[in-house]
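sorry for the late reply, my laptop died twice this morning and i had to redo everyting from scratch. anyway the thing you sent over, i finally got around to it. pasting the sequence first so we're on the same page, its 85 residues, then the predicted structure underneath. double check i copied it right bc i was rushing
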Amino acid sequence: MNIHEFDPLPISEFDREHVELAMAGDWWSSDLLRLLAKSDRAHLERLRLVFPSHVAAFEAWHNTGWNEPGPVCTDPAHQGLESSS
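ok and here's the structure:
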């Protein structure tokens, strides 16, 4: 296995497609996504070495209209996490 292909905990499909909702959550990926939001470029690159799918999802969200309202999740487990803006 190539070190650049290593991803011990890949981001879930839901979290990848709904980063804004995931960031409001209380699960592990939510914590990591909030950390990515606070990270400077150097730390982001270090985190990419271990969590490449999370960093890629965060960057895709951050770089493509992240201020626009996203889809609303209909999963009952995620109710109440939607942004109220």
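Helices lie at 13-17, 19-23, 28-38, 41-50, 52-63.
thats about all i looked at so far, will dig more tmrw
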